[in-house]
Amino acid sequence: MSDHMLIVEWDEQNKWGAPKIVPYQNLQISPVASCLNYGITCFEGMKAYKALPDQSLRLFRPELNMKRLQNSMKRLQMPGSDFVSDELIECIKELVKVDSDWIPYGEGYSLYLRPNVIAMHENLGLAAPTSTMLYVVSSPVGPYYKSGFKPIRLQSENSYVRAWPGGTGNSKVGGNYAPAMKPAAEAAKRGYEQVLWLLNDEITEVGAMNVFFLWIDAKTGRKELVTPPLDRGDILPGVTRQSVIELAKSWGEFDVCEKNITMSQVRDAAKDMQIIEAFGTGTAAVVTPISCINYEGVDIEIPATGGITQKIWNELADIQYGNIEHPDGWSVHI
């Protein structure tokens, strides 16, 4: 971890206190704090980059992370969710400046930032917290793929459920991730790197990523990039997901659609040779090509790595590392 961290505390009397950048350190938490006993905790994942042309420091669309963090806090009934996004972004910028020497230079390298909000309520009673702590830590990270893309093989999962309508799947809360460990381990034993989460037969997410398919739509006969929609409330609104949708629409090369997809549809499309490529998206890897999905005991092979997967990676990386400036200011200077 880098040398410093950002801490901001909230309590009923003072509301948000003054932000502090302090040396990286362990936290002092009561054994009965509700973050430990009831999982009242949420977080974000962001990165700071050194631009390749001039080594200027950048964030990528941080306002989307702030919006999602606020929504996660509201879902857990955590006080202080009305914080001013721009002010927290400025605090994070200051933290990045202080630890700028920790940001490695080069494409694929960055400083990973982890904002957390934890409930510090010191009472075993199950109730909305009356005190919280927001802190941000960081760590340098290198390329997710050190020697080119490595496509992943997926095990579709219907016996375990990651999220459901009315749950917390559209929030980045700690309780969404721990239950995924067991099915992920079981998939790994069977030779699959990730779990493709299903709700009944409908595709939701892959591992901790959003998922996209480029195929020929069975009804229209047109090439279509499709990803599951957010309206059901069980899909995390990924920053990379939104960026991919917006970029792909701007190209005008194919239809871009958010709609429900079933594994039965994917199986049938694969049989008819109508699946062109598939990939997952997220902050860590940006895009991850998918080469196989096991469904009902049968491996469905998918061409990988596809040209659109590579194009998305290239364009997002160019924006994140300052090679090109997106017209909407996605790369935010520090």
Secondary structure elements and their pairing?
Blueprint: E1 4-11, E2 15-16, E3 20-23, H1 34-37, E4 41-43, E5 46-50, E6 57-60, H2 62-75, H3 85-98, E7 110-119, E8 131-141, E9 152-157, H4 181-189, E10 194-199, E11 202-206, E12 210-216, E13 223-227, H5 239-251, E14 255-258, H6 263-271, E15 275-282, E16 286-295, E17 298-301, H7 307-320, E18 331-333
Parallel strand pairs: 9-10, 9-16, 13-14
Antiparallel strand pairs: 1-2, 1-3, 1-8, 4-7, 5-6, 5-7, 6-18, 7-8, 10-11, 12-13, 12-15, 15-16, 16-17
Helix pairs in contact: 2-3
Given as residue ranges, the uncertain stretches (5+ residues, pLDDT < 50) are: none
| Shape designation | globular
Helix content, binned percent: 10-25%
**Main sheet: strands, sense, barrel:** 9 strands, antiparallel
Distance between the first and last residues' Cα = 20 Å
The count of helical stretches stands at 7
Content-based structural category: alpha+beta
Overall radius of gyration: 21 Å
- Helices and strands, in N-to-C order? EEEHEEEHHEEEHEEEEHEHEEEHE
Mean of pLDDT: 96
What would you say this structure looks like, in words?
Helix 2 crosses helix 3 (85-98). Strand 15 and strand 16 form a beta hairpin. Helix content is 23%, strand content 31%. The chain has seven helices and 18 strands. Strands 1, 2, 3, 4, 5, 6, 7, 8 and 18 form a nine-stranded antiparallel β-sheet that branches.
